[in-house]
Specification:
Length: 62
């Protein structure tokens, strides 16, 4: 659960800076956030979480 909260904070921070630099429109940001919430409620949520955990565990071994 701690990894999920950290990734949400990271993606939120990146999204904030994209909006602030006008690289991303508000409509695009709303669409991206909505897609994330809808994706999390599908069967794809578990494999995505497993992939994120695998990548995070592999980073120290690089």
């Amino acid at each position: 659960m701690a990894i999920t909260v950290s990734l949400v904070a990271l993606f939120g921070l990146v999204l904030f800076f994209l909006l602030r630099s006008n690289s991303l429109s508000y409509g695009g940001a709303f669409t991206a956030a909505g897609f994330g919430f809808f994706l999390a409620s599908t069967g794809a949520a578990e494999p995505i979480n497993n992939l994120a955990q695998a990548v995070i565990q592999a980073i120290p071994n690089l």
